[in-house]
Amino acid sequence: MWALVINPVSGHGKGTTLGTYVAGYLNQHQIVFTIVTGNSSNAMGDHLRTFIEKNPDCEGVIAVGGDGLLHIILQIVVPFQIPFTVIPAGTGNDFVRTLGWSLLDVEAQLSRVTTSQPSPIDLGLVDGEWFGAILSTGFDSIVNEKANSMGWPKGPMKYNAAIAMELPRFKPRHYEITLDDRTISTEAMLIAVSNGKSYGGGMLVCPSAEITDGYFDVMVLHPISKIEFIKVFPQVFAGTHVSHPAVEIVRSKAVRIESAAIAYADGERIGQLPVAADCIHDAAQTWVA
User: Fold this and answer.
1) Alpha-carbon gap, residue 256 to 98, rounded angstroms
2) CA 18 to CA 281: how far, in whole Å?
């Protein structure tokens, strides 16, 4: 028995369309499953937890949604050690990108998931909360805060609008970053603690990050002018920003960040700093392309 978790509002309705497709695929291949959904994030999480408690032999969880749904799923499947996969139906889909799956060829992903064994991957654990891709603080978190408060525009354009609104008044902040072997005391514009490679819909903030090596890649963007930031920012989609002299990347199994700022992980609000995160080796089971 599999759990098919569908977020109907992912991708402005794409979750419903793709969820129907996945259900049809499973039926066609005579794979036994139960659909789990809900009218809110909390409801979906509660329903999945109840399903797994009643079905301890659950073979796996197929989640149809984005990184927000991933974040909910992780909190439930990791304690139960249930393998999972995410079918990309969100706006960012960065965890799926990190695992190497195509955002278009869902059938290939389903075929692998339902016919082969999963592999272990690392996860981040920040103040007791699991995350799959990236924990961040700084300018991007401020943009997230702004975008989440905006009713218009919809989709990725909302974040572009939030960037345009927040950049003119943004100022770097002082951070204390405690790593395995040292502490970095610095002014910074952005800090990304990366288990995966990308966030924000394909921004390769730490292109060399590996999800199986037991380490975070920690990217620190030291202060640059706003004009320089606008010039450098597009490079993040190719990962070429890492050669800029203001970009510092270090590796660490544990990270603690202190500042008067907020943090997000997998696009979800974690809260005010300080936060402490650990890279937990082989924390979960999933299918890698």
Assistant:
1) 24
2) 31
pLDDT the model gives residue 155:
65
Q: What average pLDDT does the segment 145-153 reach?
A: 80
Question: Which of 49, 83, 117 is a domain's end point?
Answer: 117
Q: Which tokens belong to 251?
A: 């590796």
**Least confident among 43-47, 138-142, 154-158:** 154-158
- Distance CA(14)–CA(88), nearest Å, equals 9
Bridge partners of 137?
Answer: 191, 263
Q: What are the residues whose beta carbons fall under 8 Å from the beta carbon of 231, sequence distance 6 or more?
A: none
Give the strand order in the sheet containing 216-221: 247-252, 216-221, 190-194, 134-138, 262-265, 268-272
Do residues 204 and 92 make contact, with C-beta atoms less than 8 angstroms apart? no
pLDDT at 211 over 60: yes
Counting Cα atoms < 13 Å in the Cβ hemisphere of 268 gives 19
Q: Is 205 within 8 Å of 150 (Cβ atoms)?
A: no
Give pLDDT, residue 36: 93
Question: What one-character DSSP code corresponds to residue 199?
Answer: B
Instruction: Please say if the pLDDT value at position 70 is more than 70.
Output: yes
Distance CA 220, CA 194 (A): 11
Strand, helix or coil at 146? helix
Residue 26 lies in a domain: yes
Residue 85, domain extent: 2-117
